[in-house]
């Protein structure tokens, strides 16, 4: 027995050393991006329709342009353009001045739609602060729980919002997410990804959109409330007519 004891310790050490260590929050996010489009995002032109409005995003390296085109009640065509240099509004092909009080709401509205369509792209940005909360399961499927907040500098027009993403520990897909927001008296949302499809190498999903009445509820608790059917469905988030052009 005395001769076997050192061997037992050696085998135990080898077994422990082989145990896989959980990746960091940054590594998990990087893997999620890699598996849904990776470098293709950085040089892509993506157009789509959402709630009868047309959207287009163009990225060329570090430069971006987000557009929203809509028809108002009197038939005018309004195009809002959000880019690295700020917001520009055009009405019937003419640039118009935007009141200071409207710059932030318009920018938030345009940015928000593009943000959710492009997830997980952008979560690797320096302004995105990521924290691995641990692992949890939803309907017996294991996920990494990643909390994301944004720095004011470089964090976009709605940098105060907070997010939690449930990322599959096996294929790194983002199957669920939750977030809170400050506009319109604030609120919290929980989304389930549905209808995944690949277009020109980039993955897109739609969402079932849920809310919860108690705004003080921690975002990381919403998955359990979803399992017990305690969330209220408010809408379906459906992105239509998606077209992708990859720059060369």
From TrEMBL:
Alphabetized Pfam families for the sequence: DUF6503 (PF20113)
Name by which UniProt lists this protein: DUF6503 family protein
């Amino acid at each position: 027995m005395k001769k076997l004891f050192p061997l037992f310790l050696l085998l135990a050490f080898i077994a422990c050393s082989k145990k896989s260590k959980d990746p960091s929050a940054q590594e998990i996010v990087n893997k999620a991006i890699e598996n849904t489009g990776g470098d293709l995002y950085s040089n892509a032109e993506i157009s789509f329709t959402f709630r009868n409005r047309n959207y287009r995003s163009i990225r060329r390296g570090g430069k971006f342009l987000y557009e929203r085109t809509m028809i108002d009640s009197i038939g005018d065509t309004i195009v809002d353009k959000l880019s690295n240099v700020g917001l520009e509004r055009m009405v019937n092909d003419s640039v118009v001045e935007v009141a200071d009080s409207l710059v932030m709401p318009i920018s938030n509205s345009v940015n928000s739609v593009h943000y959710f369509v492009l997830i997980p792209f952008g979560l690797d940005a320096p302004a995105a602060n990521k924290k691995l909360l641990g692992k949890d399961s939803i309907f017996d499927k294991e996920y990494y729980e990643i909390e994301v907040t944004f720095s004011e500098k470089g964090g976009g027009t709605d940098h105060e919002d907070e997010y939690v993403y449930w990322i599959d520990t096996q294929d790194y897909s983002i199957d669920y997410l939750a977030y809170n927001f400050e506009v319109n008296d604030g609120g919290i949302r929980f989304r389930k990804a549905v209808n995944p499809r690949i277009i020109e190498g980039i993955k897109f999903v739609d969402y079932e959109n849920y809310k919860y009445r108690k705004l003080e509820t921690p975002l990381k608790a919403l998955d359990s409330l979803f399992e017990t059917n305690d969330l209220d469905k408010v809408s379906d988030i459906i992105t239509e007519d998606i077209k992708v052009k990859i720059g060369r």
